[in-house]
Design brief:
Helix 2 packs parallel to helix 3 and helix 7 packs parallel to helix 8 (172-181). By secondary structure, the chain is α/β, with parallel strands linked by helices. The protein has helices at 2-5, 25-37, 57-71, 86-95, 116-127, 140-143, 149-158, 172-181, 196-202, 216-227, 231-249, 255-263, 280-292; strands at residues 8-12, 42-45, 77-80, 103-107, 134-138, 162-167, 187-190, 206-209.
């Protein structure tokens, strides 16, 4: 079952760009290899971290195909297909090719700020349009509206193909409510690197990580140790990254992690407007922390 596959550390894969603003598919292939070689459990493709609002339909289709071909079934692929138009998501599910995709990630509609009933009906229409497993994505900091625990649990109970939620509300009480009352076949996945450790101690099954783009080996180890109940060693790794968590996001996502990947020689430090590279001052702070962690940069 897909619920057992989407556990551990999933990575919200970035989209590398060349200096001329085109997608760097060669670097994308290297990134996929880097993730698989360093213990990433699954890939989240074309999520927010991939700068999807600035990608064309043709670019999204090619990125999806390149990643699917390179992964070649070695780890699960979770594909982002969210939109603030329900009809758009439904038509995508009906018309696109999802061969090689294990599940889809669908965000709460952004900008139009629907009611809880509107959110429920949005996901109801999507669940009824496909047999693919669906992961809900609650990120009120981006969407402008929070999907409550009540709505999440209602969806989890009503639709068997809604298998998990990526929770990035920042509300631990809400997340704990979902974990406590969820059906057995429904999982909670952290959508925030910084709270992955405490959320796993409450019963979450893993994370869809940004920092994992640059540090898959270290962060996947922390995640696995926490899942196995080795909280002491997991907490040690968590604390090593605490300051880096905030620095990676202070200039917006994925500016911080792209700066790290650039120093590692994996990509150009290029984002598409309106996003811009992280500030030099931020980067130098990150470099100092990496030196303390004995991570070469």
């Amino acid at each position: 079952m897909i619920q057992t596959k989407l556990k551990g550390m999933g990575v919200a894969l970035i989209t590398p760009f060349k200096e001329d603003d085109s997608v760097d598919y060669d670097s994308l292939v290297r990134l996929v290899d880097f993730q698989i070689q360093n213990g990433t459990d699954f890939l989240c493709v074309l999520g927010t971290t991939a700068e999807t609002p600035t990608l064309t339909k043709e670019e999204k289709d090619k990125i999806k195909q390149v990643v699917i071909e390179r992964v070649n079934g070695r780890i699960p692929i979770l594909l982002g297909i969210g939109s603030n138009c329900t009809r758009t998501v439904v038509e995508t599910l009906k018309n696109d090719d999802f061969t090689g995709v294990d599940a889809v990630l669908v965000t709460v509609p952004y900008y139009n700020k629907p009611s809880q009933e509107g959110i429920y009906q949005h996901y109801k229409a999507i669940a009824e349009a496909t047999e693919l497993p669906i992961v809900l994505y609650n990120v009120p900091g981006r969407t402008g509206v929070n999907m409550t625990a009540e709505t999440t649990l209602r969806l989890a109970r009503d639709f068997k193909n809604i298998v998990a939620v990526k929770e990035a509300s920042g509300n631990i009480t809400q997340m704990d409510d979902i974990i406590k009352n969820k059906p057995a076949n429904f999982n909670v996945i952290s959508g925030d690197d910084g709270i992955t450790f405490p959320l796993i101690t409450l019963g979450a099954v893993g994370v869809i990580s940004v920092i994992g783009n640059a540090f898959p080996r270290e962060f996947s180890r922390m995640t696995r140790l926490a899942i196995q109940g080795d909280y002491s060693n997991a907490l040690t790794i968590h604390h090593k990254f605490t300051e880096l968590f905030s620095l990676l996001f202070v200039d917006g996502n994925p500016a911080g992690v792209k700066a790290m990947l650039n120093v590692m020689g994996l990509i150009e430090n290029k984002l598409r407007l309106p996003l811009v590279p992280t500030r030099i001052t931020t980067f130098e702070k990150m470099r100092a922390i990496l030196a303390e962690l004995n991570i070469k940069c």
